[in-house]
Each structure stands twice: as structure tokens, then as C-alpha cells.
């Protein structure tokens, strides 16, 4: 006589699939919030890296460097020039940012809004719709953050705070520029620094 076939019945397989579906339904929302928190951290790290790059390039080249919010064309597309008061708020960095060599402009006081400067690096918008991630700065002296050849921020730039807010998650990263040119980061819950 032969042995009886061993295996799973259809009912057992359906029970396992139902339990798996329930566990997946519980895990997916939690995983979404982890992804959103990681995106917010990534944007804060990108901005920190860009500010550090600007400072390091000023020291390396012994020239004036700047970082500014990326402008927007009349069509609403990102441009390769700094934002000016005519296109949108100069405090809104949500459309990306530019690292610039100001030595080519002949002026270290104004941020270029045309092609008279060398763009060192272009950072794209962290969130193209600018609805999930908001990046702002509290500068009272215009859109550009300028660095001296010794790595110090230009007068009026120290104490400037960048806010990287991710309202969906309720998380905000605050980047504060010190008088020495160094950044301090503080992560908080809420939407403001």
C-alpha cells in the first residue's frame, strides 16, 4: 500500500493568506511614515551639505561664494538663476537652490539674477509640487547667503535659520547658521522653528 499524500489544504492556505493580508494592511501605513521621515531628513541633509559646500568653496578658492533659492520662470519651471522678489518670496527655498561663485559678478553684495555668474552646483526641488516639504529661510538681508573667503558668513547672515518642514509627518528640522559659518541642526515636532 502507498503512503498518503501530505500537504496543505485549500482552507489552510486561505487562512494563511488572510492573516498575511491583515498584517500587510497594518504594516503599510507605518512604513509610509518611515519613508516620509526619511525624505524630510534627506532634504535637511542636502541643504546642510549645500551650505557646507558653499563655505568650503569660499575657503578653497579664496573668493566669495553664495547659495540662493532657485528662481522660477514665468511657466513655473525652475530656472538656473537666483530667486528675486518678482517671481516669488525670496524666503522660499522649496524649488531648490544654487551654489554660486560671486567672484565672477564683480559684486559681492548682490545675488545674481542673470547669467553673469558661475553656477557651481544646482540642487533640484526636494518636492516638485512643494506641498509635502517646505524649505524656508528667515533672512532679512535678501535671498543669498554669502560666505567670505575665510569661511565666515557675510555680515547679517549669522543667526539665519533655515526651516525644513514636513507637515504631513509633523516634523521640522531647524538649521541655524552661526557667526563662524558652522551649522547647528535641531529636529523638532511641529511645523516651525
TrEMBL record:
Membrane topology category: Single-pass membrane protein
Transmembrane segments: 7-31
Family note: Belongs to the GSP H family.
Annotated GO biological process: protein secretion by the type II secretion system
Organism field: Derxia gummosa DSM 723
Domain General secretion pathway GspH: residue ranges: 44-181
InterPro entries listed in its UniProt record: N_methyl_site (IPR012902), Pilin-like (IPR045584), T2SS_GspH (IPR022346)
NCBIfam families cross-referenced by the UniProt entry: IV_pilin_GFxxxE
Keyword annotations of the record: Cell inner membrane, Cell membrane, Membrane, Methylation, Transmembrane, Transmembrane helix
Subcellular location: Cell inner membrane
Keyword Transmembrane attributed: yes
Statement: the UniProt record of this protein carries the keyword Transmembrane helix: yes
Any single Gene Ontology cellular-component annotation: plasma membrane
Protein name: Type II secretion system protein H
Domain of life of the native organism: Bacteria
Main location: membrane
Pfam families recorded: GspH, N_methyl
Amino acid at each position: 500500500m502507498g503512503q498518503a499524500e501530505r500537504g496543505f489544504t485549500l482552507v489552510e492556505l486561505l487562512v494563511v493568506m488572510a492573516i498575511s493580508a491583515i498584517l500587510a494592511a497594518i504594516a503599510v501605513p507605518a512604513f509610509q511614515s518611515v519613508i516620509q521621515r526619511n525624505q524630510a531628513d534627506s532634504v535637511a541633509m542636502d541643504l546642510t551639505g549645500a551650505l557646507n559646500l558653499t563655505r568650503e568653496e569660499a575657503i578653497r578658492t579664496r573668493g566669495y561664494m553664495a547659495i540662493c533659492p532657485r528662481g522660477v520662470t514665468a511657466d513655473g519651471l525652475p530656472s538656473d538663476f537666483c530667486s528675486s522678489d518678482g517671481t516669488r518670496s525670496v524666503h522660499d527655498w522649496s524649488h531648490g537652490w544654487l551654489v554660486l561663485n560671486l567672484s565672477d559678478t564683480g559684486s559681492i553684495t548682490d545675488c545674481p539674477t542673470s547669467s553673469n555668474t558661475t553656477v557651481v552646483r544646482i540642487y533640484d526641488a526636494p518636492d516638485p509640487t512643494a506641498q509635502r516639504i517646505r524649505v524656508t529661510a528667515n533672512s532679512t538681508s535678501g535671498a543669498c547667503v554669502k560666505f567670505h573667503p575665510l569661511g565666515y558668513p557675510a555680515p547679517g547672515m549669522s543667526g539665519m535659520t533655515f526651516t525644513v518642514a514636513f507637515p504631513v509627518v509633523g516634523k521640522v528640522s531647524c538649521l541655524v547658521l552661526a557667526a563662524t559659518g558652522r551649522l547647528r541642526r535641531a529636529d523638532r515636532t511641529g511645523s516651525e522653528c
